[in-house]
């Protein structure tokens, strides 16, 4: 059996990363949790939009797979978060409701 078949069978290779949860952490911060590791430095504020109204002022790292999107205005559960960026191996576009 060739090397490709072994790696394929064991699940090797890159998987597509995507947002698994988006939480209204407080009245102006969204915590976007990804399936895999994501770095704040790998995305841009313009990659995100909340409720078709505004983009984050800044993005900070919460932990290995969670980013804090610091919004310029109030957000609340039920708003729609859209990611439409060009970070490698991140699903685009994607949208998720804030909880």
Structure description:
With 99 residues, the protein is mostly beta strands. It has a single domain, classed as Immunoglobulin-like. Helices cover 7% and strands 36% of the residues. It has one helix and seven strands, in the order αβββββββ. Strands 1-2-5-4 form a four-stranded antiparallel β-sheet, with no helix packed on it. The longest helix is centred in the first third of the chain and has 7 residues, at 3-9. The termini are far apart.
Oligomer: single chain
Radius of gyration: 15 Å
The CATH architecture is: Sandwich
* Strand percentage: 35-45%
Brief description of this entry?
This protein has one helix at residues 3-9, and strands at residues 19-26, 29-34, 48-50, 58-63, 66-70, 80-83, 94-97.
Defining key terms:
single chain, 99 residues, Immunoglobulin-like, four-stranded antiparallel beta sheet, three-stranded antiparallel beta sheet, 36% strand, globular, disordered N terminus
Write the layout of secondary structure elements.
Elements: H1 3-9, E1 19-26, E2 29-34, E3 48-50, E4 58-63, E5 66-70, E6 80-83, E7 94-97
Antiparallel strand pairs: 1-2, 2-5, 3-6, 4-5, 6-7
């Amino acid at each position: 059996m060739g090397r490709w078949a072994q790696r394929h069978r064991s699940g090797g290779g890159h998987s597509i990363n995507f947002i698994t949860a988006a939480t209204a952490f407080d009245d102006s911060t969204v915590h976007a949790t990804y399936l895999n590791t994501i770095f704040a430095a790998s995305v841009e504020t313009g990659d995100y939009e909340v409720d078709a109204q505004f983009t984050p002022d800044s993005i900070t790292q919460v932990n290995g797979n969670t980013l804090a999107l610091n919004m310029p205005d109030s957000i609340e559960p039920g708003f729609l978060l859209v990611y439409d960026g060009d970070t490698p191996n991140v699903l685009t576009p994607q949208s998720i409701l804030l909880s």
